[in-house]
Write a structure and sequence with these properties.
With about 80 residues, the protein is of the alpha+beta class. A three-stranded antiparallel β-sheet has the order 1-2-3. Strand 2 and strand 3 form a beta hairpin. It is globular and about 35 Å long.
Length: about 80
Amino acid sequence: MPALAHEEHVFKAPWNACADAVKTQQCSYTNVNGDLLKGTCRVFNEALMCVRNQPIIAAENVTLKDVTEITVSASLDKHGGH
């Protein structure tokens, strides 16, 4: 029986990153190597997922500033910028 490459996406981090977000909100997640992927929440298969739109930041180069920027942005977006 052949396996379909896109039958099921088992890496849930892109969806989890937008679980409590709104469309176009900034988001980020890490892959299994610890690399940071940053993007915006987009609708995919009727659910929001984080779609990368910035260069991948290798795990060894991730800084506190990289993580804080997304956290602060997400907090502001969720509460109407207040």
